[in-house]
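chain below, 465 aa
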Amino acid sequence: MAAAEALPAARLESVRALSGLFREAQPRETAEESVFQDVLEILTSTSSAIEQSCEDSCGLADLDTCLLLVAECFRCLRNACVECAKNQHVLRNLGLISTSVHLIKLLHGIQIKEELLLTALRCSLQFLGNIAAGNGDSQNSIWKCAFPDLFLTCLTYSDEKIVSYCCMVLFTCLNSERVRELLDPGNLPVALHVLRVYKEQLDSEWSFLIVTEHLLKCPELVKALYAKLSNQERVTLLELMMVKVSEKNPASSEEMNVFVRHADFLADCFQEKCGAVLKLTAAAAAEDEEALVTIRLLDVLCEMTSNSSQLEHLQAFPGLLETAVDTLRLTHLAGKQAVNIFTATHAVTGQEEISHPAVGFKSHLIRLIGNLCYKNKENQDKVYDLDGISLILDNCSIDDNNPFVSQWAVFAIRNLTEQNEQNQALIAQMERKGLADSSALQSMGLEIQQRDGKLILQSTRKKPS
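prediction:
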């Protein structure tokens, strides 16, 4: 019995020594294949012992030793793969990827959550991450052996490190072709779980990278995901889209095409759900989740229309401008009919900071309208027809519920009147009849002048001589 106990202990010590050696580059690069064959043999026999101990409850006493040995074997293999393509190749050819995947599934089936088990699982996933790093053949092998089952298992694990290492493996293996595989209804839960990991563990860098560098590059996947998400999860996805849209790096033509398709989808969603924001007129509905999605959709559309590549496309999007003007009218009216978050307020002290999800909503609607009218005569005329100009002028005052609303109104009026005599004349007539505040116009850098019997709206900015 003593000899039987001594064997695992001796093996553990020898593997531990190897793990230490492989922290250095030179021993890694000169390691013989026979060393890894020995480690494989230990893993295989230990795997059989674990299966046996699970079948025979009396054998659970030996489980701790087995788990220690598995963890150390994976540490050793993990270290051996660091910046060493030769070892990655040898380990893959020995079948260690399929052995690892089998062991992970086996360990997951053990109904205990002790630290030794968690350590073995963490080390096994780190090994898969390292053997896949920069190695297409290993990535192919892992995908073949592990997708989607291993990812579905590990992404929902109760241990944050296991989830994070699983995300690392997934990120390393993903490419544009594999992202499309996630569209399959049986595989879509992998993408859903990644987004949920990001939502619940905001420090999870790997889940962030999976979404921003892979999932968001497939518009069909975003659409399929969005349909399955709760409203809270939709807000999370839209926040990640905002990060991507706000990037200042020059986009390739392929990326621009992807964002144009995202823009179509989000504009559709906004038009469908924009009425939900009116629920926020009730104080009790301040956290209405559907309304929060609408607010975030507007934020992303504002950012998209600030980008020239998406602006032109959205300027022509059927119904978007009309929806923005109508929603501005409805929220403005709601704020006048009763005191709520859409009511213009201005505290004399300026000390009170208002915390409400709809703060800035009207500002952003005016910003979107201004963007959609930028150098676009057709949209300028549409706003005229929708009686939207007087509506924007009615939102020129300082409003604590809508920071920068007057600045966005200035911006929108400039874009609406640029090279548009009809809109200029309308504002001039409104000022003459007292329907437009001349001081507000002056603050916009605009003034009314009479020329040839006509009232003209003109910029007060000096033109460069």
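The chain is about 65% helix and 5% strand. The radius of gyration is 31 Å.
thats it, cya
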